[in-house]
Design goal:
Elements: H1 4-19, H2 25-32, E1 51-56, E2 71-73, E3 76-80, E4 85-90, E5 96-101, E6 111-113, E7 116-120, E8 125-130, E9 136-141, E10 151-153, E11 156-160, E12 165-170, E13 176-181, E14 196-198, E15 201-205, E16 210-215, E17 221-226, E18 247-249, E19 252-256, E20 260-266, E21 272-278, E22 283-287, E23 291-295, E24 301-305, E25 311-315, E26 327-329, E27 332-336, E28 341-346, E29 352-357, E30 368-370, E31 373-377, E32 382-387
Antiparallel strand pairs: 1-32, 2-3, 3-4, 4-5, 6-7, 7-8, 8-9, 10-11, 11-12, 12-13, 14-15, 15-16, 16-17, 18-19, 19-20, 20-21, 22-23, 23-24, 24-25, 26-27, 27-28, 28-29, 30-31, 31-32
């Protein structure tokens, strides 16, 4: 009979095999697709989505994990591919402004601020480019691969790496100003919550279900709260990663965790205002004081009442289609799916309003909005701008 010690050793080795480079994304995705994704249903479209412009930005994401979202900076939209080709386009016309080939592996989209476009690489580097010309400014080697787009404000660049570290660097030359680190669990999802800057605070979620607010000036902890608490008998059951970016509106931080909760917290103090049980890796969008929209891990899109979390409606016909986080566009919310379809959903009651396919590849990134346009990026590098209707 196998001893208890032997069982423990075998189980531990099994978890290590699952974790690979510290993540279980592939295992989870394969498990999620044991049942087939829902077939798209017919409906009467209420309008025809109008494409303002569309372009191919390069080689695309390169694999099933990279999320190379577009980044809006001023009147430019910035795109990058997994080979490190970075391009800038005029928001309204799609005219290419500049293109720079970095020839480095990139696994998250561009970020920026402070006159810089910022690229994080798989090799753990932050590369800063001039936002107007795309020319090289500086480069800094960090402790591990950069899993989220870097951001900059108040003369500080904020970068998040795979080892659980958030680093503050000088906008001027990349010199390290401060560093904050939390231990990464043995088993976690592939990815990291991108840092969001609000006032003088950096807000980011962690794989242990905690949300932290740091001072952007010195990296000191302002507050820390548990959004999700690990529960369950197995390590897989106990995954509570916060992988999606928090959304901040009117002094409130909205965040959702995998196997956890959706929570609204005070930006100033971290006090939890309300919660609702929810599991999501994709993320959410918010109309403050009205509704919170979230895509859960089943592919359901929810509208919840801000202030209570009560369900207003649930769209269930995108089951297992790996939908993106929703974004609010006028009277609708928009999500993309794994087959390159974009879905317009009524904010009133959750019914489908319109649909358009932009690529034969997955859309993984949350759509982004600028003025009267909404931008979606497919994993083959297609960047499409739709007019908001």
């Amino acid at each position: 009979m196998m001893s208890n010690i032997a069982r423990f050793v075998i189980g531990f080795l099994f978890l290590l095999a699952l974790s690979g480079c510290g993540s279980v994304s592939k295992w989870l995705e394969e498990d999620a697709y044991e049942a087939p994704p829902a077939e798209l249903t017919e409906f009467v479209a209420e309008f025809e989505p109008q494409i303002a412009w569309s372009t191919n930005t390069g080689a695309g994401a390169g694999n099933d994990y990279n999320d190379l979202a577009a980044w809006i900076q001023g009147d430019m939209v910035i795109a990058t591919d997994y080979e490190g080709e970075v391009s800038s386009y005029n928001v309204q016309t799609g005219k290419q402004l500049w293109r720079t080939a970095l020839d480095v592996p990139v696994i998250s989209g561009a970020g920026g601020g402070g006159g810089l476009v910022l690229i994080g690489t798989q090799e753990g580097e932050i590369i800063a480019l001039d936002e107007m010309q795309g020319t090289f400014k500086w480069k800094k080697k960090l402790s591990s691969e950069v899993l989220a787009p870097p951001k900059a404000a108040m003369d500080v660049v904020v970068a998040r790496t795979a080892d659980g570290r958030i680093t503050g660097l000088s906008v001027a030359d990349g010199q390290v100003l401060w560093s904050y680190q939390r231990t990464v669990p043995l088993l976690s999802l592939r990815g990291a919550s991108e840092p969001v800057i609000a006032d003088d605070k950096v807000i980011s979620g962690y794989a242990n279900g905690k949300l932290v607010a740091l001072s952007i000036l010195d990296g000191n902890v302002i507050w820390e709260k548990s959004v999700a608490v690990p529960r369950g008998r197995t390590e897989l059951d106990r995954l509570v990663d916060i992988d999606s970016a928090p959304v901040i509106k009117d002094g409130i931080v909205y965040v959702v965790a995998y196997h956890g909760r959706l929570a609204a917290l005070s930006l100033e103090s971290g006090r939890i205002l309300w919660t609702r049980d929810m599991s999501s890796r994709s993320g959410l969008d918010v109309e403050s004081g009205d509704s919170v929209y979230v895509s859960d891990d089943s592919g359901y899109v929810w509208a919840l009442q801000d202030g209570s979390g009560d369900a207003l409606w649930r769209q269930t016909r995108l089951l297992r289609r790996n939908v993106t986080a929703p974004v609010i566009v006028g009277n609708h919310v928009i999500v993309g799916d794994f087959e390159g379809y974009v879905h317009w959903i009524s904010r009133d009651d959750g019914h489908f309003v319109a649909r358009k396919r932009i690529a034969n590849n997955a859309i993984r990134s949350k759509p982004v909005v600028k003025d009267d346009l909404v931008f979606l990026t497919a994993s083959d590098g297609t960047l499409t701008a739709f007019r908001i209707q």
